Amino acid sequence: MSSADQNSSNTPRRALAMTSMSDEDYCNTYWPQLREAVDRLLQGPPSPPHTGPVIQFEPMYSAAYKCVCQQYSEALYNDLTSHINKHFLKVAEDMQDVDDLHLIDSYYSLIHRVMYSLDGIIPIFTYLNRVYVETKLSSTLRTELQKIFCTAVIDPVIARLLALIKHITEAKPFYVAPHVLASLVKNLYKLRPAYAQTYPQVFCLQCVSTNSQTTLWRRRNSRPP
């Protein structure tokens, strides 16, 4: 792309950024639009037969970009993290009554849904991440949102969850599909590596047992009835 083309493609965004924004504009127009997009993404992947994007990305990216350019970075970050924290606290409340029989499958599904949601939310706030989170907070938006999720939802059950994983891996290796256990442990580490330092036996045990269990699981389930 030529420099002229680049300048042309950047013109609408620059013009948008130069348009003044009042507190009323931010509170009544821009943040509500962004909050609605975040809420849609927090619902997780759409159910079939839905196809196509959950939200329109470009308008939401532009709205967040303008908020940052108009000196609303801190307000946007605080509103975003506060709103997501409230959502995750509600999720944690809903998960309180899950029994051991369904605990692993429930958190396996939940974590996959949350990771899908974050993968959709974070790109909208790329400019906020670059200008405010990385510069002012010396962090990343993904790190901060994962921290909120872990603190609200995972930390209260992590000891129980990993104890159950350890028990199943050692005593009931086919009680849960090995790929489910492996994915759950992998994603827990991805969300908060400190879990592996606090519970090293579970993470090491799961790494050692996964390959052999998966092979046996496949053989067992491929047998004719």
In words, what does this structure look like?
The chain is mainly α and 225 residues long. It has one domain (7-222): 5 helical Cullin repeat like, CATH 1.20.1310.10. Helices cover 79% and strands 0% of the residues. The chain contains eleven helices and no strands. It has helices at 3-18, 23-42, 57-69, 73-94, 100-124, 126-136, 141-154, 158-171, 178-191, 194-198, 200-222. Helix 2 (23-42) packs parallel to helix 4 (73-94). The protein is elongated and about 65 Å long. Residues 31-203 form the Cullin N-terminal domain. InterPro entries: CACUL1, Cullin_N, Cullin_repeat-like_dom_sf. This is Cullin N-terminal domain-containing protein.
List keywords for this structure.
single chain, mainly alpha, CACUL1, Cullin N-terminal domain-containing protein, Cullin_repeat-like_dom_sf, ubiquitin protein ligase binding, protein kinase binding
